[in-house]
Design a protein that fits this description.
This protein is of the alpha+beta class. Helices cover about 45% and strands about 15% of the residues. It starts with a strand and ends with a strand.
Amino acid sequence: MTRYILPLSDPSATLENAGGKGLSLTRLIQAGLPVPGGFLITTEAYRLFVEENGIQPRILEALKNMDLADPGSVEPVAQQIAGFFTGGRIPPELVQAISAACAPWNDIPVAVRSSATAEDLPEASFAGQQDTYLNVRGIQAILKAVQKCWASLWTARAIAYRDRQAIPPEQVALAVVVQELVPAAAAGVMFTANPVNGKRGELMITAAWGLGEAVVSGAVTPDTLTVNKATGRLLRRETAAKQVMTVRTETGTADQGVPAARKKAPVLNDRQVSELAGYGTRIEALYGRPMDIEWALEAGKFAILQARPVTALPEAPAGSSVEWKLPDPRGIYFRASIIEQLPEPLTPLFSTLAGSLIDSATRRLFAWMAGGKEIDPDIQLFETINGYGYMNVNFGVWITVLMGVAQLFKLKQIFKQSEPRWRQAHEHYLEVIRHWQAKPLDTYSATELLEAVRALTGETVQMYTVLQTGPIATALGSETLFTQLYNRLIRKKGDPDASIFVMGYESTPIRAEQSLYDLAEWARGRVALAAHLEATPGTRQAAELASGVTPSGLQAEEWGEWQRLFHEHLAKYGHFTYDLDFSKPVAADDPAPLLETCRMYLLGKAGSPYDRVQKLTLQREQAAQAMPKRLHGLKLRIFRSQMHSAQKYAPLREDGLSDLGLGYPLLRRMACELGGRLVEAAALEHPEDVFWLTEQEAEQTAAALDSGQLPAPMKAAVLERRSVWKAEQQLTPPMILPVGSKYMGMDVEKLTKGAASGDEHVLNGFGSSQGVVTAPARVLLGPQDFDQMRAGDVLVAPITTPAWTPLFALASAIVTDIGGPLSHSSIVAREYGIPAVLGTGVATRRIRSGQTISVDGGAGTVTLK
């Protein structure tokens, strides 16, 4: 047509003029594959628009004002650049060319899709970095969508991605694909190699009703089908309960509920699966490598919407399987106990080194509980299955009965010794830390560094076993007993909830928050310092603290005092863990989340923790003082006794959980010291890569270093394992294996997760803190996401630990995947007086950040708006 417009089938399309997506679609059409028709607006059009509006020099100037080490500085620059595009004028000759190309599609809905020159490449897929607009009608709407696509070349995520791929900003341009919209009855994604286990002989298809956006965005759990690529035979079919579908509307697209009759119905039949798999094998043969393919189905016919190379496919481990295969066919595996502190797939060093320590410590604990009777040594208690930690509890009926009976006789001992045993374990942990702190890190041999990691991990695991039969058990027992007594024998209409009587007590996480608040108040009295901290995101503050340089406009003495006070806070509270896998940084390693919370205090977006505790204390005292007015004699004595017991042990549990990471700052420094030596020996790329070695590999490489030999290179293995770990993150580990099995007559799924909801817009869980809140959700998977939290958001997380507590000051409510009425989330939410619904099982997958949700802590429901 013109240098600005090309038909999608035009063989003159190149990466330079059509971008990665456009070139891929052209190639598919030329190979005879069913691709919807359309045309390309070439990169020449983008360059003309940029030149006519003088945008390129302004982009380069704007990019100078950001620091890619500080993610918070990228978004303002991206928004500034977006304004250059939305405020620009499309040249008349370009309007004329696009209008002429649109003539055949004038009344037909189209998809307008970005196609960058650094996109869908074998070495950098760039998937999802630029924008797509669906169900666009008419020339004016198409022109507006094209302008938005051009601007999306400069979103914060696209800028950061190109930087990681070392692509200079001067070299990128963007074409736009305008393509007939397939009014899909069903759609999904197809990988021509298994993305979970890396098997090249398997093809995986995901399928859901409606347009494909719900699948790509993660709004729906789709059907998953695994196919033998050579024969087209269906190997496995997992049919999901599909709650949401993306559909066309008059003005675009929207998510709506799937009709009841289709929720649990398979999207594709066997014949359709075989046909689609055939297209997959053709496309893989065309490109000569595994491919990630988007597809749609309408009126019984398939359409291929996109195909890009798979850039992070793991090598297929021998004998691997997508199935949740049991290590011991007789085993019953729970994601419970210490596993609750391990929500993500485990890194290899933790899985192997810490796994054996967890197994040994649990074995000792169970022997103590069973009166000395030991578990069969052939039964492995701790296992890693598809990357996730599990505990095997099928160690025989006899020993299980023994433990149950012994517990009845040990109850008094457990309660009496709970606090002394914890304090003894605490002191021993500190002794081990002091032992390994006695010498500078560079004076330890590599083998000694690994031994220190093992010793400090062992103390962490031992501490947890003490907590299990100490503060955790006593907190659970005392509060459950008090709640049952109060609700059944004492509570009358109008009386406060039982939780009121155990609120307002300071625990270590609450004291840590008060310490952070004190820091903010100290800074508030220094005008220049306070202004700087208020204006500077936490990530940038952390970089400033690490640099040792006083920021411009601040007094060196005042800045030095601020540093000293903050480091005192870290020394006392910086060991709180977000995840017990020691590969994850703690606040002592990355203080940005704490600095951001301190900033929120300065900005007045979070209230005083002292005022909150005082208010709750007053409510508790008033409730307790009211009881003697209507209770007398034995009933009053029982009430007071059980109330005092619950009040004593609830905060003790939080103190104990806060202890788990006592040695982690030192442990991580010693592990990274070993990793640094392996980097110098060219065995690893980065010091933190040491966490991706197995215990045996770490031992071998340490021994090689100490003997003056070059250790075996592990860079390729680390890259592979990171890819596998990323794939495992997409899995949803069942709470019990085999799935659906019962343990001692109990339905574990019902005990560990909220009951299923009959309403597609409602998630059920454990209501563990009273109240109702409707607000935007903020889905945070770990500390790397903490800077996304805003005051008033509903915090949605896999699970929370004491390290998450600073976010509670900003949250209006809490929702988690994992947890129960007496988990950390529950106890701290009550202390903050905010609703909490825990143990939903799927919250982080079903809820999207920014989505409005209603949290009812009394009913235990989360309603999606």
